[in-house]
Amino acid sequence: MIGWRAETLGRLACAQSTRGVTLVFVGMFDDYRPSERFLCPWCGGSLIEGWQGQDGPCRLLTWVQGHPCPVVPPNAGYTLREDEATAVLPELFVIYTTCVNGHWVEAEGQCIDGVWRRTRLLEESEYTDGAGYKGDTD
After folding, report:
1. 48: Cβ–Cβ under 8 A, 6 or more apart, which residues?
2. Alpha-carbon torsion, ordered 71, 101, 121, 48, to 10 deg
């Protein structure tokens, strides 16, 4: 019989057996595309395209700021099922990405009347798991 020890590392769940086998379970997420292009608050570098977040439906959907429902990326080769097409975002949600220099960056999205309307970069003290890097954000 194999015994398992589970733990959470940031957004990854890990389980390790008594025989030394480690399994990593990556949670589902959605893809987010803010309308504004932000720069890294730590180094001023460009942020990587493809913000992700786990506060929404977490069905690998793509959300574009200003659109009331998920969108299908160009050339995706699929259409949304009815339950996906009618999915909604919460009033406030956190999204995250990295910059070209590897700094972790989080932002908060805000929905108004069911549509994602605002995005603001979070201060490090507001980060959901404290994964930010020390730096001057001015």
Report:
1. 97, 98, 99, 100
2. -10
Contact present, 33 and 25 (Cβ < 8 Å): no
Summarised one tens digit per residue, pLDDT across range 38-80 is 999 989 999 988 899 999 999 889 999 999 999 998 888 888 9
Residue type, 132: G
- Residue 65's Cβ-count burial label (10 Å; 0-12, 13-18, 19+) is middle
- Structure tokens belonging to residue 122: 């979070």
User: In the chain, what's the furthest Cα-to-Cα distance?
Assistant: 55
Closest CA to 83 of 65, 61, 106, 115: 61
Residue 134, strand partner residues: none
C-alpha pair distances (Å), 102 with each of 43, 47, 60, 93, 133: 10, 9, 23, 22, 10
Q: What distance in Å separates the CA atoms of residue 59 and residue 124, rounded to the nearest whole number?
A: 27
pTM recorded for the entire structure: 0.72
Select the highest-mean-pLDDT range: 7-21, 72-86, 113-127: 113-127
H or E element, residue 98: strand 92-98
